[in-house]
Amino acid sequence: MIVLCADVGTTRIKTALMDEAGNILALQTAAAENITGPNGQSEMNMEGLWALFCECARALRAQASDAFAGVRSVIIAGQGDGMWPIDDAGHPARNAVLWNDVRSRDILAEHKEPLEKIAGECHAVLPFPGGMLLILRYIRDTEPENYRRIAHALHCKDWLNYRLTGEITTDYSDASVGEIDIYTKKTARPLFDYLGLDANLIPEALPAWEVMGTVLPGSESGGRYEYVAGVVSDLESIPEGMVGWMLPDGEYAEAEATGLEGIGKACREIIDGWLPASGYRLVQSPMFASTAHPHPDSPEAVWRVNIPVVTVEELEKLKQWEI
User: Domain map of the chain by residue range?
Assistant: First the structure.
């Protein structure tokens, strides 16, 4: 089994392909861009970081294509603390605010005594500048419009995991720095209430060792499909500028989606919901989605999402022919 590993720091992103023995088969790093400004501002463009991660992954594939084809797991470690906000559609609500941003220091100075008391009572870490809660309060106070747009407040690695899988989660290690009761692992709601924040912005925290999702087809757009290929049945009359291509025969798991934004959700329903107990497994073949709606980009367009699958028995037969 090959693992794609990523260490996403404040100034650099490091990625590697590793085998089960810990041998590094390919390595790629790149510089990350920080946005700094007055009063201790430190931010990062969220889409820019995602593009950088994809660039590194493509470089790993170019270095070791056979090993890359064998990737079965992705493990991401990211810079801690900070706040990486997304809206209802899964898009960044604003730039990420990083762990070394200190613009919220005055909030701590004003409220330190009651915050210390509340944090002690709910077994949570005292909120601090650069941490999730004080950053959210700072955004609420100084950028109310942006605060209202935030549907989920994530950490760095959570953002990349979301772009890969469409799942919105965090883990105990990141959440333990002020967001949860370290004993019960539940959201420290009294701290949120005191600061006038919506505790529901924080996703459920899971143990760091748990598998949190499945990499989706088309994850280079975060489960959000940004362009759609038209299909014609008559390969003799292909419109200019297009090419003829025929989907391979085989079995497909099918789900219905509404709007382009629903395609990723339909994929998750098949891969995470139906597939594990179905007796089928994914097969290396293109997935496709089709609609008869005259305006494919309409939020009312109904799509049929098809993901190629094969029975467990057939998969075992195929493996006998692998060299």
Answer: 2-206, 225-319
DSSP state of 115: H
Tokens of 23: 């041998």
User: Which is nearest to 288 in space by CA: 214, 230, 222, 220?
Assistant: 230
User: What's the pTM?
Assistant: 0.71
Q: How far apart are CA 59 and CA 238, in angstroms?
A: 34
CB under 8 Å, gap of 24 or more: what pairs does 117-121 form? 118/190, 118/191, 118/194, 119/178, 119/188, 119/191, 121/190
**Quick one: CATH architecture of 2-206?**
2-Layer Sandwich (3.30)
pLDDT tens for each residue of 189-211: 999 999 999 999 999 898 988 88
Closest-CA residue to 128 (of 109, 154, 153): 109
Secondary structure letter of residue 322 according to DSSP: -
